[in-house]
Amino acid sequence: MLTLAESIFLLCINDEKGSIQPSVSTRLGYSLASALVFELFLAGSLEMEAKGRLVLKSQLLKGDSLLDETLRRIQRDGKTHKPYYWISGLGLHAKQLRRLAAHQLESKGYITFTEKRFAWAIPCPDHPGQPGSIKYWLKQDLRAAVYGLHEPAFHQAALLAMVSACQLLDLVFTKDERKAVGLPINNLLESKLPTSAIHLMSLIQADLAELFAK
User: Fold this and answer.
1) How far apart are CA 114 and CA 56, in angstroms?
2) 203: closest CA among 27, 82, 56?
3) Domain of 60?
4) Which residues contact 164 (CB under 8 A, 6 or more apart)?
5) Residue 168, domain CATH
6) Which of 15, 37, 103, 117 has the most crowded CB, counting CB atoms within 10 A?
7) Strand 46-48 relative to strand 54-56: parallel, antiparallel, unpaired?
8) Is 0.90 topped by the overall pTM?
């Protein structure tokens, strides 16, 4: 299964140019950082205290270079912080995050890449014998979840929350569709995610809005 950070990275690749979408390039580091923090929270590695600070609850590594490096950074820091601290701090290492994400996705067989260009592996490993890149199938799954074409999995709800918080809905839905999907997405998140996760996501969304505006 793709991690949230990997999924965000894939959605941000421009199909024609094989590069990161210019409209999101400067924001990608913070988006990846927030996805890592949220996934560690969902996995039980992080918990949120009453004052909105994140505390490390488990140091067990996940076998994922991005998540494990994030865990090590949090462990070395040894203090509790609000989400903004980690999103802003990790986001400053955007080049490293992007490089790790690209290497992971290549090792899983989803993409190939050089210094200047990403290319899709078609068919992708998750859908052998069928046309379409992993990005195509990601978008199809997210759209199907929102439009009620299948029962969304927990991970899909988490990814939708991240896509919305990172202001990336335009990479999945058309302009007209975005006017109508807000309420269905909110209802889906409330039905699939625990209250604590929704609260953290609201903080992450506010933090990203502030960081993107700088």
Assistant:
1) 36
2) 82
3) 4-213
4) 185, 205
5) 1.10.3630.10
6) 37
7) antiparallel
8) yes
Domains: count for the chain: 1
Spatial contact of 123 and 132, defined as CB atoms under 8 Å apart: yes
Does residue 47 come out as left (phi exceeding 0), alpha (psi in the -120 to 50 range) or beta?
beta
Residue-wise pLDDT for 54-78, tens only, equals 999 999 999 999 999 999 999 999 9
